[in-house]
Amino acid sequence: MAGLQQAERESDWRRTGLAARALGVHETNLKRFADRDHILIESVHWVHGPYTNSPRRWNVPLRQEALARRGRLNRKRN
């Protein structure tokens, strides 16, 4: 059972292009949410690859939750 849970968790992590498509946003916006807007937290929502030229990996379910929470907060402000 633990092996299955490990595989499921690993399948949540996707490269930038695949994560952007799964989330319905452009790759540039995905990176902006992490780099400039600080909506996404490193090691929670995204991780660097093992090398400097490796693509980031994004946790799609956690990322969806973070953006949904941000959307609810923005709607409450308006």
Largest sheet: 3 strands, antiparallel
Give the strand content. Answer: 5-15%
The coarse overall form would be globular
Mean pLDDT: 79
Number of E strands: 3
Total helical segments: 4
Helical content (DSSP H or I, runs of 4+): 55-70%
Radius of gyration from CA coordinates: 13 Å
Order of helices and strands: HEHHEEH
Broad structural category = mainly alpha
Strand neighbour order, sheet with most strands? 1-3-2
Describe this structure in words.
Helix 2 crosses helix 3. The longest helix has 18 residues. Strands 1-3-2 form a three-stranded antiparallel β-sheet. The protein has 78 residues and is mainly α. Helix content is 58%, strand content 10%. It is globular. The N terminus is likely disordered.
